[in-house]
């Protein structure tokens, strides 16, 4: 009999969330499935997202897997190419590539083929991570105007505060101002911008976290946004015991009982992808009833409070996040974000679609 932990991936929910994104977008949707589709499985997620006009990944190996598995949409490499040798593969597999640096432009100049590549030119409007500065843009556009390797050009940027009160106004106005003279498609909106700022939609939207049923906002839940959770991580109670007031729980005794109480041990720990830094009080469901974690998360186990769940016994179902318990709520209690929890699902956890 195997350990009871498993991740359930609801592909119907993934399709539903894509349709939410498509209703919000005025243009085409580039579904972001980097990092193994945020931990949900690259190829299975891509199949569920076949109605999206494009798929975005980080690694050229993933892009090739998608093509060989039958994906016919635009496939975008979000960090572009890292060597000149990759340009031949990009052409062979008909991939689109981000270009964000002079180094990549130099490799593009050295590429011998003609009219082969779709380039997404990244402009730095304030993120200060990747992209050409507004000052550099005119010279770069002139350089690309009649480039022998260029088949199609898209201009893109990335918002640094779309999920926060500061918003996107400054970056959006800068982008609009410096690109106004160029009649090419544009891509601006990530999940937060797509959901909150219609003016930022552009020709291509790039939703990521919303596709997986998590909210990018601290003040709005996924349910309020009409999204459905895609990953539900479940396990079971493998021990139930009573402890006395004053007794400690777990490593370093970080939790000390203030009264006599029942506690349970769950077969899930940080080696499964549950955050070790989750503190006492992180929400969890036992038999569908809300309770809290206790003490420090171990490698393979964590403790829960069963004081108010009289029917909890060994074998009872435990939901770590997902259906009935939003992943972003667990992440917030653990001092992190939903992206990290979903992406951190360990390979040892069985996945059921």
Would you write up a description of this structure?
The chain folds into 2 domains: 26-206, TIM Barrel, CATH 3.20.20; 231-352, Lyase, Ornithine Decarboxylase, Chain A, domain 1 (Beta Barrel), CATH 2.40.37. Helices cover 26% and strands 23% of the residues. The protein has 11 helices and 18 strands. The chain has helices at residues 11-24, 34-39, 42-48, 60-68, 85-92, 102-110, 137-144, 169-179, 191-196, 327-333, 338-343; strands spanning 6-9, 28-32, 54-57, 74-77, 96-99, 117-122, 150-156, 186-187, 204-205, 231-243, 248-249, 255-256, 261-266, 283-286, 289-294, 302-305, 317-321, 351-352. Strands 8-7-6-5-4-3-2-9 form an 8-stranded parallel beta sheet. Strands 10-13-16-15-14-17 form a 6-stranded antiparallel β-barrel. A two-stranded antiparallel ribbon has the order 11-12. The model has no long low-confidence stretch (mean pLDDT 96).
Helices, strands, pairings?
Blueprint: E1 6-9, H1 11-24, E2 28-32, H2 34-39, H3 42-48, E3 54-57, H4 60-68, E4 74-77, H5 85-92, E5 96-99, H6 102-110, E6 117-122, H7 137-144, E7 150-156, H8 169-179, E8 186-187, H9 191-196, E9 204-205, E10 231-243, E11 248-249, E12 255-256, E13 261-266, E14 283-286, E15 289-294, E16 302-305, E17 317-321, H10 327-333, H11 338-343, E18 351-352
Parallel strand pairs: 1-18, 2-3, 2-9, 3-4, 4-5, 5-6, 6-7, 7-8
Antiparallel strand pairs: 1-10, 10-13, 10-17, 11-12, 13-16, 14-15, 14-17, 15-16
């Amino acid at each position: 009999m195997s350990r009871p932990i498993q991740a359930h991936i609801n592909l119907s929910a993934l399709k539903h969330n894509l349709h939410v994104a498509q209703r919000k977008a005025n243009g085409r949707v580039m579904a972001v499935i980097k990092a193994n589709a945020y931990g949900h499985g690259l190829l299975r997620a891509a199949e569920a997202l076949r109605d999206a006009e494009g798929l975005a990944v980080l690694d050229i190996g993933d892009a090739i897997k998608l093509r060989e598995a039958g994906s016919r949409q635009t496939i975008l490499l979000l960090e572009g190419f890292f060597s000149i040798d990759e340009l031949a593969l990009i052409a062979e597999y008909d991939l689109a590539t981000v270009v964000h640096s002079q180094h990549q432009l130099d490799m593009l100049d050295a590429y011998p083929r003609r009219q082969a590549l779709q380039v997404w030119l990244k402009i730095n409007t304030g993120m200060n991570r990747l992209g050409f500065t507004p000052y550099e843009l005119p010279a770069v556009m002139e350089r690309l105007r009649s480039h022998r390797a260029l088949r199609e050009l898209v201009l893109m940027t990335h918002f640094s505060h779309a999920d926060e009160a500061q918003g996107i106004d400054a970056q959006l106005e800068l982008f609009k101002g410096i690109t106004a003279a160029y009649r090419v498609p544009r891509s601006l909106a990530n999940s937060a911008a797509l959901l909150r700022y219609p003016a930022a939609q552009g020709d291509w939207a790039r939703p990521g976290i919303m596709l997986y049923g998590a909210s990018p906002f601290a003040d709005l839940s996924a349910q309020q946004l009409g999204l459905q959770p895609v990953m539900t991580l479940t396990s079971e109670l493998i021990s139930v015991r009573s402890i006395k007031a004053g007794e400690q729980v777990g490593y370093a005794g970080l939790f000390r009982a203030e009264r006599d109480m029942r506690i349970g041990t769950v077969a899930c720990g940080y080696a499964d992808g549950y955050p070790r830094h989750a503190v006492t009080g992180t929400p969890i469901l036992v038999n569908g009833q809300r309770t809290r974690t206790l003490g420090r998360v171990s490698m393979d186990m964590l403790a829960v409070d069963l004081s108010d769940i009289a029917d909890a016994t060994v074998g009872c179902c435990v939901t770590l996040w997902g259906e009935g318990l939003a992943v972003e709520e667990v992440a917030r209690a653990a001092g992190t974000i939903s992206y990290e929890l979903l992406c951190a699902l360990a390979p040892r956890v069985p996945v059921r679609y």
